[in-house]
Write a structure and sequence with these properties.
With about 230 residues, the chain is α/β, with parallel strands linked by helices. The chain has seven helices and nine strands.
């Protein structure tokens, strides 16, 4: 594994898959007390991404690049998160799979069934059938902010580009982690579609796996950093 040692290391890693959800509601104030920021839980989203930006159906093109290095990162993620955010599509797919006999032998089965899950959806209704699942239907930004203020580990995000974009726009996403695969898929939903709002990000970590997958970790750049970049153009 090659690593850029000039970048600040951070070991909080989690995995995200496609989901259909979008956050609405009041944006979180960007100017937060520094002490509060330190104590708050972190919302971390990760994506399997192709070179042409596709995140849809990674099971169709990602498997050939899965190796021990990637597995170690995913295993580490499970140990650092004690809650998940899910969109409706992913929730429905996983709720049908993980509690069923079809998931027997899957290493993450127990974790997925036991972890606390928060489902962002405007169309689902309670009660949700999958164990430890709570619906977030209204006041989404406020509800996620409340979760971040509770004691606990990282909150992992499993969601499509629309969910990730909404988290970024609302100032709720602490890190975006991309496992960029050396493959051009050609078609499918992309992480950032045309028309997405501009958002400055800061690269804080970079790793290269033996398979050629590049693992990039981004955080939102400060407003001043964004203005400085705009002024330099």
């Amino acid at each position: 594994m090659k690593r850029n040692d000039n970048l600040r290391p951070d070991r909080r890693i989690t995995v995200v898959y496609a989901a259909g959800a979008q956050i609405t509601g009041t944006r979180v104030c960007e100017a937060q007390d520094r002490t509060e920021e330190v104590s708050m839980r972190r919302v971390i989203a990760s994506e399997f991404v192709s070179l042409d930006g596709v995140v849809e159906a990674p099971e169709k093109w990602q498997g050939a690049y899965f190796d021990e290095e990637m597995g170690q990162e995913i295993t580490a993620a499970i140990g650092r998160a004690d809650a998940m955010l899910l969109g409706r599509v992913t929730y429905e797919e996983w709720a049908a799979f993980f509690p069923s006999p079809a998931s027997e032998g899957v290493p993450s089965r127990d974790y997925m069934n036991e972890v606390r899950k928060y489902v962002v959806s405007s169309t689902l209704e309670e009660p949700l059938e999958w164990s430890n699942s709570t619906l977030i239907k209204d006041n989404v930004a406020e509800e996620i902010t409340r979760l971040k203020r509770q004691p606990g580990k990282d909150i992992s995000v499993s969601g499509s580009g629309s969910l990730v974009r909404s988290l970024l726009e609302g100032g709720l996403l602490d890190e975006l982690r991309l496992m960029v695969h050396p493959i051009v898929v050609g078609s499918g939903k992309r992480l950032f579609e045309e028309g997405s709002d501009s958002k400055a990000l800061e690269l804080v970590d970079s790793k290269t796996f033996g398979t050629g997958v590049v693992y990039l970790t981004y955080r939102s750049a400060s407003k001043q950093e964004h203005l400085d970049r705009e002024g330099a153009r």
